[in-house]
Design brief:
Length: 214
């Protein structure tokens, strides 16, 4: 059984699949307290207790083949790995949106992982685990950095350079809503001269009040 905060359809906004119709499974609970969190209720709400077949049944009725498992923090719940594999077996194209504070070992290789590396201004950068980033080169993982300031940008850029991530990974740099403008982040990326992708959180532009849950 899993604690589910909500299941809904929207437009995928935080990965290289941005712009596609997507079904979202938002699991309840999170042990992080990011300064810019846009779903604080999902952090603390218990949600509905659903079995994996019940979740798949609800998702199937929504229509999109692309499914994102998000939170909160989905890897807090022990049955999330089984849910991810069951969704793959059911024929869905599966994304996992998770923070860098939890190990990604054991995740079904068919799942595309969107790993949110927390920058210092999030207040949670010290909670990141020591991932073996050399194992991310298999092509099933994208690294996302939410940038709240120029200092955050410099930290994230150095993070990628030190771990030799530039040429082998999708590196998504997103401006924190209301903290950094798209134009500022674009200028910093151009000045850096590196293969970093400017990545606005598309759902926040379409439905800023609803956080993407139209």
């Amino acid at each position: 059984m899993l604690q589910v905060f909500s299941i809904f359809s929207s437009i995928q906004g935080e990965s290289t699949r941005a712009g596609l119709p997507c079904a979202f499974i938002r699991l309840a609970g999170c042990s992080l307290r990011c300064a810019y969190c846009d779903t604080p209720l999902a952090r603390v709400a218990r949600g509905r207790s659903l079995s994996i077949p019940q979740i798949i049944s609800e998702v199937s009725r929504l229509g999109p083949n692309l499914v994102a498992v998000t939170g909160g923090e989905p890897l807090l719940q022990k049955d999330t790995l089984a849910l991810l594999s069951a969704l793959c077996e059911a024929g869905f194209n599966v994304l996992l949106e998770t923070s860098g504070a939890f190990s990604i070992i054991g995740i079904d290789p068919r799942v595309r992982i969107i790993l949110d590396v927390k920058c210092p201004d999030s207040g949670m950068s010290e909670r990141m685990v020591a991932h073996d980033y050399t194992n991310l080169h298999s092509g099933n993982c994208e690294l996302k950095f939410v940038i709240s300031s120029f200092d955050d940008f410099c930290w994230a850029k150095q993070f990628c350079v030190e771990r030799q991530l530039i040429s082998n990974n999708e590196l998504l740099f997103s401006p924190a809503l209301g903290r950094v403008s798209l134009s500022s982040l674009a200028r910093w990326i151009l000045d850096a001269g590196l293969q970093l992708r400017l990545h606005p959180q598309l759902h926040t532009l379409i439905w800023p009040e609803a956080k993407g849950e139209r």
